[in-house]
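for the writeup, i need someone to sanity check this before i put it in the appendix. the sequnce is what the collaborator sent (i think, or maybe the updated version? ugh). structure was predicted straight from it, no edits. if anything looks off just tell me and ill rerun, i have time this weekend
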Amino acid sequence: MIASRELRQKFLDFFKSKGHTIISSASLIPENDPTVLFTTAGMHPLVPYLLGEKHPGGIRLVSIQKCVRTDDIDEVGDATHHTFFEMMGNWSLGDYFKKESITWSFEFLTSKE
């Protein structure tokens, strides 16, 4: 069994080897977005860049974003529902699309390394 810390590092290292810049998890309290209380997905802090703004890290990014979701808070406590989790994401800001994304995700999930 692989430890969560090792899995996170392997994910970051894998996409770094594919030319991605590692970016830190953003705050759980979103900046400049009064429409939500918490960061709920890995894409949330990247919305301005997904809409065309230039990201200082470049056009290929990888992150492990801390997230809080409360949509199903009444279900929290069973074996499958939680409020906090970390979302692993690789991001292309206009560089590559489905072919590379699917190929690399499959490679990461099936590689013995």
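The chain has three helices and three strands. The beta strands are 21-23, 60-68, 84-92.
thx in advance!!
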